[in-house]
Amino acid sequence: MTTANIKELTDSRDTVNKWMERFGVRFGVYKHGVFNEQLFPFDSVPRIISKSDWEYLEVGLKQRVTALNLFLWDIYHEKKIVKDGVIPEEFVYSSKGYMPECEGISPCEKVYAHIAGIDLVEGKDNKWYVLEDNLRIPSGASYPMIARNITRKVSPGTFATNAVADNRDYTDMLRDMMSEMCEGKGIAVILTPGRYNSAFFEHSYFAEKTGATLAYPGDLFVEDDKVYYAGMFKDKTRVGCIYRRVSDEYMDPMTFESSSLLGVPNVMQAYKAGNVALINAIGNGVADDKGIYYFVPKMVDYYLHEKSILQNAPTYLPYFKEDYDYVLNNLQKLVIKDVCEAGGYGVLFGSELSPEKLAEMKDLIVKFPRRWIAQEVIDFKDLELLEDDKLVWRKADLRAFVVTGKETKVWKSGLTRFSRNPDSFVVNSSQGGGFKDTWIMTE
User: Fold this and answer.
1) Which of 181, 414, 141, 186 is nearest to 280 (CA)?
2) How confident is the model at residue 39 (pLDDT cuts 50, 70, 90)?
3) C-alpha–C-alpha distance, residues 411 and 92, integer Å
4) Of the chain's two ends, which shows fewer C-beta atoms within 10 Å, N or C?
5) Does pTM surpass 0.90?
6) Counted domains in the chain
7) Residues 241 and 138 in one domain
8) Record's Pfam families (predicted)?
9) Are 114 and 409 in contact (CB under 8 A)?
10) Percent of the chain scored above 70 by pLDDT?
11) Rounded CA gap, 396 and 419, in Å?
12) Which H or E run contains 15?
């Protein structure tokens, strides 16, 4: 790449980041009890995914999310996958994400994961691996959307001369799905905890782009098992669906955490009565549990009678004796993940632990085998990015977004996150990572 090309990319990166700062495109992080808002740094060198690679990923993502939705329906209804011994009963019901309060509830169209964020990496063997399934409140789609909108303004020729799939249809997908879930029962709202939430920018952005009403704690109330929006002028408007950006345990203080001021009292009653749709459904955490992840290829086989197209990273569950022995004997070369953590926290690389820390980790696995999974380290591809005025290589993943209403659709874009630390595999924004545009080629 020439010096002129690098200067052009550098100018584009700096301009886009300045515009994002001007637009208030930020995310918040709580650390040591303090809330800090910061920019999510954008890099102007795009990730490019070929048409053939994307076609493969699209089919695999639809298959995986379909199986996960079938699993969620099953686990809160007939429980056939447990009765048939595919997944151990104890393993499911000991999951922190399993919500017994959701037993027997039948969501509209049997959809639980309306919005799924599937995290993948591309190995140096040119194979794609799924690292995590995010089915509760996956975030991040707004960042590549607004970054590309800004890029179109500052560099109009970029997309005129490259055959890249347009990514502006994500909010159309959301709008259509929410309309299907509302079933004509009322308006669609996006429930935000407020500006101190890490993804508040995204909440307000999606509300503007979809035409949904942005609702804050206290704006919604339940009457006769129906949800209503009061808003600034206290007009009473029926709500058909709630795209919630509030965690399960805080959604209804009458059912879950009684001290919560973020949710809607008695919303679970309206949900059980079928009078409002919750997007995503309460209780999805049992399916994106890092331990349940191990069983997703088995779900594909069990529910769809198909071989899983997308591969998991090679994963071991200390819950099983054979895996338990393997993990304890090979801990120094594995990645260890705490199933109770998220956002890049609770991830340990055995190769980086001292002998004393390895011994401590082994003791924890012996005492709490259900709490941990271990994975082989995938040597996934580095991507080019600009650091100051130089091109460097860093680890990166891809969060693909899958939207399910009456049918399942995969957004032809995604959130490519990268590590700014040359020695780190952790790419999460909360851990200091940045992001770049994802170009899905159409030719």
Assistant:
1) 181
2) confident
3) 30
4) C
5) yes
6) 2
7) yes
8) CP_ATPgrasp_2
9) no
10) 93
11) 6
12) helix 3-22
Q: Token digits for 75?
A: 């686990």
Confidence bin at 425 (pLDDT 50/70/90): low
pLDDT, one tens digit per residue, over 15-28 is: 888 888 887 777 66
**Domain membership of residue 333 as a residue range:** 316-376
pLDDT (average), residues 26-39 = 65
Q: What is the pLDDT of residues 372-383, one digit of tens each?
A: 999 998 888 899
Same domain for 247 and 367, yes or no, is no
Q: Which two tokens stand for residue 163?
A: 């055959």
Q: How many residues does the chain have?
A: 443
Q: What is the pLDDT of residues 73-96, one digit of tens each?
A: 999 999 999 999 999 998 899 898
265 lies in the same domain as 331: no
Token pair listed for 226? 């129906």
Tokens 């049997």 belong to residue: 110
Q: What one-letter code names the amino acid at 144?
A: P
As a whole number of angstroms, the distance between CA 420 and CA 370 comes to 32
CATH of the domain at 351: 3.30.1490.270
pLDDT at 196: 78
User: ∠ CA(133), CA(328), CA(82), 5° rounding?
Assistant: 45
> H or E segment at 42?
strand 42-49
CA angle 329, 331, 333 (to 5 degrees): 115
Residue entry with tokens 């919560």: 260
* Closest to 344 in 3D by CA, of 127, 29, 42, 125: 29
Pairing assessment for the beta strands 434-440 and 415-418 based on DSSP bridges:
antiparallel
Domain shared by 288 and 321, yes or no? no
Distances (CA, A) of 428 to 119, 279, 403, 424, 433: 11, 24, 22, 11, 5
Classify burial at 256, counting beta carbons within 10 Å of its beta carbon; exposed 0-12, middle 13-18, buried 19 or more.
middle
Could you tell me the two tokens for 358? 């390895």
